[in-house]
Amino acid sequence: MKKFMTIALAALTLAGCKQAAKSCDSDACAADDTQKTTLVAYFSASGVTRNAAQLLATELDADIFEIEPQELYTEDDLNWRDSTSRSSVEMKDASARPAIKALPEGLQNYETIYLGFPIWWGVAPRVINSFIEQGELKAQKIITFATSGGSELQPATDALQQSYPDIKFINGYLLNEATAESVKAAVELAE
Question: Taking 50 as the threshold, does the pLDDT of residue 12 lie above it?
Answer without folding.
Answer: no
